[in-house]
Amino acid sequence: MFEKISQWFDRGNPQTSPDGKQCDHFECTLPAEHRAPRSRDQLERGQQDWLWFCLDHVRDYNAKWNYYQGMSEAQQLEERLSDVVWQRPSWPLGNQGQTKKLTAEFDDPLGIFEKSARCPQPHRLSNQQYQDMDLLGMSEGFSADDLTKAYRALAKQYHPDTNKSPDALEKFRAIKDAYERLKAHPFP
To answer: Is residue 44 one of the residues assigned to a domain?
Structure first.
């Protein structure tokens, strides 16, 4: 039974050469036992599209054969990227816009999806942001002006030109980095 099933998949594309086939290399009379593709466009199309070689000549042929020959850099990159997903179409994961559109078209008699769409999600702070706020002496709900005022006060206090403490430079850099990180993210 299994032999018959395996024969279905090998029809027209034998792994071994036809009986009596000689090597396709010029002036070689050895039996051809190994197949090699003629070009990248004719891969897996049947026996007539294969070259048959002896072991020595198939090694030479494979060493010189280049799948990407005749392709531009852009075509090569496109081919490699399509191979990542086995030459199948793919879509980005987590497409939030599509999800929102589906919930908008969904009949929601209880208004469950409507409530979640209207309620803004609270901004969650990272541990790093909490540490930066603690370093600058800030609490949640601060404004941009509060952040700037706290930074200026601490920068004056710990600036290495005015504070001769050995830890002043490290403290000043930490304050500056914390200020830059908090300034770059939305305010809580």
So the answer is: yes
Alpha helices in the chain (DSSP H): 2-10, 55-64, 73-84, 96-105, 112-118, 127-136, 144-158, 168-184
CATH code for the domain in which residue 159 is found: 1.10.287.110
Of 118-122, 153-157, 181-185, the one with minimum mean pLDDT is: 118-122
On whether the CB atoms of residues 46 and 12 are closer than 8 A, the answer is yes
Give CA–CA dist 155/162, Å, rounded.
10
Q: CB neighbours of 182 closer than 8 A, spacing ≥ 6? A: 129, 132, 133, 136, 138, 147
Q: Mapping DSSP to helix (H, G, I), strand (E, B) and coil, where does residue 37 land? A: strand
Q: Which domain holds residue 158?
A: 127-184
pLDDT at 16: 57
Last residue of a domain, one of 18, 48, 64: 64
Last residue of a domain, one of 49, 64, 79: 64
**Spatial CB neighbours of 139, under 8 Å, sequence gap ≥ 6:** 133
Question: In this predicted model, what pLDDT tens digit does every residue of 30-89 receive, in sequence order?
Answer: 999 998 888 877 776 555 678 899 999 999 999 999 988 889 999 999 989 888 888 888
Give how many domains the chain has, as a whole number: 2
Distance of CA 155 to the CA centre of its chain: 41
